[in-house]
Amino acid sequence: MQDLLPRLLNDHGTEVVIVGALLVYLLMNAVTYSLFASDKQYAIDKRRRVSERALLWFALLGGSLGAKLAQKRLRHKTRKQPFAAILNQICVVHIIVAGVLISPIGPQVTGFAGEMVASLKPAETEPKPSKPRRFGPGS
Question: Cβ(129)–Cβ(10) under 8 Å?
Answer without folding.
Answer: no
